[in-house]
Amino acid sequence: MTKKVKVAIVSLTACEGCQIVLLDLGKKFFDFLKKVELVDFGLIEETPFPKGKLGIAFVEGNPITKEDLRVLKKIRKQAKILVVLGNCAALGGIPEMKNYQGKEKTIRYIYKTLKNIVNPEIKEVDNFVKVDFTLPGCPITNTEFLKYAKDLIKGKIPKIPQKPVCSECPFWGKETCFLRKKEPCLGPITLAGCQAVCAKNNFSCYGCRGPLKNIKPQGFLKTLEKMRSKEEIEDDLEIFGLKDMIKI
Ligand code: SF4
Ligand code: SF4
Ligand code: SF4
User: Fold this and answer.
1) Which of 11, 14, 19, 154 could potentially form a cystine with 43 if both were Cys, beta carbons 3.0 to 4.6 Å apart?
2) Cα of 190 from ligand 3 centre, angstroms
């Protein structure tokens, strides 16, 4: 009998939403677990840090604390494939707003008097270790996790098709499209795969899955500038850590 691939799902500093959506899969997630040997998943059970080689390490969250960095570097050494889960790990995410707004100012806003809070710059996982594959989103799309996990279990690195969110949006080409209504939406420059869940629920896309590769967004940003001031566009790009990737 062939040995099952050892899998660890670890969380750095995070809201753990990307792990929770895996549990939302219910039976399908437990069917996935039958195909692998799960050696760590802190959301289900606190277990000692896994020893020895791993097939896949799924990593959620930001490497912020010294302990996060220790865990990240250790798991990288152990894992054949390291996959980052979600916008925080991949693009800095919501915590990265602190960098844009000034980390000292932000921490004083939250902790008015408390001193000595660890307050490093927020940096994505790939600033510290090699990342083999990224599952984007805030949170990740759990069905996409199952889809790409099939290849990852076989030791293959999948490729996510470079299509925009608009390609999955029911409002594409219709009067109900946010852009046609002169309301901002980052769908045209954002990587598809979430089934345009925000637009379907009457929210515009703020790009949590990150920009498409090899695009030049300047033309699109000029369109946005007809609807929003430069400052407002910058604020929009801050939400999911895009401001350092897309220069206005
Ligand atoms: S990407 Fe979103 S859901 Fe996932 S850990 Fe970060 S904030 Fe939470
Ligand atoms: S994602 Fe946004 S811009 Fe794209 S079609 Fe849908 S509403 Fe329009
Ligand atoms: S529509 Fe945009 S903001 Fe919403 S989940 Fe998809 S990529 Fe993220």
Assistant:
1) 19
2) 8
pLDDT in tens, 124-146: 999 999 999 999 999 999 999 99
**Among the atoms of ligand 3, which is closest to the Cα of residue 87?**
8
pLDDT at 118: 82
200 and 146 together in one domain: no
Q: Identify whether residues 23 and 136 lie together within a single domain.
A: yes
How remote is the CA of residue 79 from the centroid of ligand 3, in Å? 29
Asked if residue 36 lies in contact with residue 7, where contact means CB atoms within 8 angstroms, the answer is: yes
Q: How far apart are CA 172 and CA 61, in angstroms?
A: 32
Q: What is the DSSP string of 188-208?
A: GGBB--STTHHHHTT-----T
According to the model, what pLDDT value does residue 241 have? Answer: 95
Shared domain for 115 and 232, answered yes or no, is: no
Residues 14, 52, single domain; the answer is yes
| Domain membership of residue 17 as a residue range | 5-153
Number of domains in the chain: 2
